[in-house]
Amino acid sequence: MRRGLLLVSAEDEFAPVWGAKPFFVPDSPTAATDALLLLHSSWVQAAGGKLADPVTGVVEVSPLVSYGGEGLEPLVAGREFTEAYDLDLQGYAPPSVRKVLGPATAVMAPMVAAWLGLAVTKAAMAVVKLRN
Which of 11, 29, 38, 49 is the 20 to 30 A CA-CA neighbour of 69? Predict the structure, then answer.
């Protein structure tokens, strides 16, 4: 039998939203959200971005853009973020710097495919009606 062990930083990987002492310090969903925003903000700063307010400023990074802070340099280098929600960090970056499918593309592609399928079906039904 093989076993493995993975050591991670608890601050980066775990934020309890409930629990009882002594195992967990009771926390809230708001505290878990704050911890996630602080983690995302540290990714942006490590990639060369700046927060307008370094003390209370935060920024959110969509998992469509980065899972662990990787690949943020083209999106954030030299930029200052004044709001927590930036469209580039939500997957709406220009195609020249976007490395993954943005939400608009991911949502629209199945809709376009369904519409094309429906259009082809309607055209085929019209041809069958004309022949009869």
Answer: 29
